[in-house]
């Protein structure tokens, strides 16, 4: 399974297609990497905002999921993104789970260039999913 090779323990074809890789995961923090390909570019030659939003969504949801090893997914309830600068090379993402309630987790994170320049920031709310119990 390609997802397992990238550091994910669930199969998500879109994430695999984009080539998003987990660098580090645990205790509510996840660090990711995306090496953009030419087909990810917008009309200005930088990484398309939709690709960056996806990377943030994966980072924040993965941070939420890292708090509970029994969950097998996370639904995005809401997410807000602020774009700060254009991305033109490898993008590093970090997601941090900030507050866990009974069923929802609030996460925040950002994207940076390899040189450390801030590219985007995001906040979001996620609902963890669990395997169906067998009665």
- The low-pLDDT segments are 1-5
Q: How many strands appear in the DSSP assignment?
A: 6
SSE order, one letter for each helix or strand: HHEEHEEEE
Strand content: 35-45%
Q: Strand order, biggest sheet?
A: 1-2-4-5-6-3
Fraction of residues in helix: 10-25%
Distance between the termini: 29 Å
Computed CA radius of gyration, to the nearest angstrom: 15 Å
Largest sheet: 6 strands, antiparallel
Mean pLDDT score: 91
What does this structure look like?
The protein is an alpha+beta fold and about 140 residues long. It has helices at about 1-5, 15-20, 50-65, and strands at about 20-25, 30-35, 75-85, 90-100, 105-115, 120-130. A six-stranded antiparallel β-sheet has the order 1-2-4-5-6-3, with helices on one face.
What is the element layout, followed by pairings?
Layout: H1 2-5, H2 13-18, E1 21-26, E2 29-34, H3 49-65, E3 73-83, E4 91-100, E5 104-113, E6 118-129
Antiparallel strand pairs: 1-2, 2-4, 3-6, 4-5, 5-6
Which features would summarize this protein structure in a list?
six-stranded antiparallel sheet, single chain, 20% helix, disordered N terminus, alpha+beta, 3 helices, 135 residues
Summarize the structure.
The protein contains three helices and six strands, in the order H-H-E-E-H-E-E-E-E.
């Amino acid at each position: 399974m390609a997802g397992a090779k990238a550091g994910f323990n669930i199969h998500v074809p879109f994430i695999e297609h984009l080539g998003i890789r987990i660098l580090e995961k645990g205790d509510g923090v996840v660090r990711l990497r995306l090496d953009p390909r030419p087909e990810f570019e917008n009309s200005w030659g930088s990484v398309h905002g939709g690709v960056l939003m996806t990377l943030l969504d994966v980072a924040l949801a993965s941070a939420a999921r890292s708090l509970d090893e029994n969950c097998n997914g996370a639904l995005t309830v809401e997410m807000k993104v602020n774009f700060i600068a254009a991305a033109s090379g490898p993008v590093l993402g970090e997601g941090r789970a900030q507050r866990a309630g009974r069923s929802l987790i609030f996460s925040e994170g950002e994207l940076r260039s390899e040189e450390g320049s801030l590219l985007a920031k995001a906040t979001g709310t996620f609902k963890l999913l669990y395997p169906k119990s067998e009665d």
